[in-house]
Amino acid sequence: MMKAAVVYGKDDIRIEMTPKPSAGEGDLVVKVRSCGICATDVKILLGNGLPKDLPTILGHEVAGEIAEIGQGVDGFTAGQRVAVYPIAVCGECEFCRRDNHNLCLKEFGLSHGIDGGFAEYVRIPYQIVKAGGVVIIPDHLSFEEAAMAEPLSCCLAAARSGPVGPGCTVAIIGAGPMGLLHLKVAKQAGAKVIVADLLEQRLNQAKEMGADFTINTSHEDFVQSARQLTGGLGADMVIASLGIPQIMQDYLPAVKNGGTFNIFGGPPAGQSMTVDPRWLHYGEIKITGTFASTPQDFQRAVELIASGEIAVKDMISHRFSLDNLLEAVEKVKNREMIRGVLSI
């Protein structure tokens, strides 16, 4: 048996003993040492996108130690320290063959079809193992930093969709945890970065993490300010690190001609936005979306964190145990922390 945070329904999460998973053929079982607490987990707890099969265990940002090795698995030994890519992919469909594993036609994953990492142990299915999603981490890298590889990998995936590098200006809408990681990715790539948010505290955090400019949208016009900061041209890439279609629509004109607008934050179902096709046509504007990441993005994220090229320790503002996980949920709901991790 093991201790886990088990979700039974909306606002119903219980800390209880549950059967410990075992490794089937090709699988691994990981002893969870750290698991990031994502806003998506909290949205699910609040009833937005509850899994069909309940009860279940959430948590998809996992780092820990190999506890059990299934038959046929090579390259791992018990006790090895690892970070885990959370999406199980078939490796055979059209999207997997193009290395767009996050769009796999048969994808499922931790806390998305199978139990996740808010527990003492988690089973890693053979599809994740086969895709290279279990990455060995060096001894100097803490488990809580390694757990940040999953959200960082999503930001690396977004950066691939547009111009992010020397000579480019990237504007990020939203200075929450993911917005701050976008900031780190863009700065590491050599870009100038503008960060916008309603909360001055978050903008101050962005400045501390390297933002070149900040815009407080509670009293500043984002589009006008972004254009003023870019010589009237607009940003090479704008990343909407929030899921509000009206804001996306209003802030689209902050993109320069030939630039990219990336929809990163997941918008709610049933809401739409209006775009002038003449502007897209004559300005050669590209609108893209980013969902999750690929195993290659994840491996790169681990490398960047382990090498120190991207620091993530300053992102971790709160630490929790399984017993006080509900406190973490409240802090996320009230926007009282940058990023929380569960330590086991």
From TrEMBL:
Its cofactor is Zn(2+). SUPFAM superfamilies: GroES-like (SSF50129), NAD(P)-binding Rossmann-fold domains (SSF51735). PROSITE patterns: ADH_ZINC (PS00059). Coiled coil: none annotated. Keywords: Metal-binding, Oxidoreductase, Zinc. It comes from Desulfofarcimen acetoxidans (strain ATCC 49208 / DSM 771 / KCTC 5769 / VKM B-1644 / 5575). It comes from the Bacteria. Residues 9-342 form the Enoyl reductase (ER) domain. InterPro entries: ADH-like_C, ADH-like_N, ADH_Zn_CS, ER, GroES-like_sf, NAD(P)-bd_dom_sf, Zn_alcohol_dh. The lineage of its organism: Bacteria, Bacillati, Bacillota, Clostridia, Eubacteriales. Belongs to the zinc-containing alcohol dehydrogenase family. SMART domains: PKS_ER. This is Alcohol dehydrogenase zinc-binding domain protein. GO terms for molecular function: oxidoreductase activity; zinc ion binding. It holds the Pfam family ADH_N.
